[in-house]
Amino acid sequence: MMLPECPFALEPRQLTRFDVHAFTRSAYDIGVRYIGGCCGFEPHHIRAIAEELSEERNGRLGEASKKHIPWGGALKNSMMEPNRLKASRQHWERTKPASGRPG
User: Fold this and answer.
1) Higher pLDDT residue, 43 or 15?
2) Under 8 Å CB-to-CB from 65, ≥6 apart: which residues?
3) Is the pLDDT of residue 98 over 90?
């Protein structure tokens, strides 16, 4: 699939990891210091919180982030040019995941 959100924003939930990054930053900026999730949050959502606030936490990240390059960074090595172009925070912040699947 060559959808703009492929492969990292196709979660079956209403809230993508990129939405969580944005929410986390907004909440932190207005003074919220206890940020987490509940039912429906998955590991990639929690990792997004930790990654978004890593600078405020002296660069600390969770163990799972050692296996993960944020913001689609691993796509830099893709054999497909359209995927390589997605290897940036800017791409994922601009992407608005589709509300449905192509027919």
Assistant:
1) 43
2) 47, 50, 51
3) no
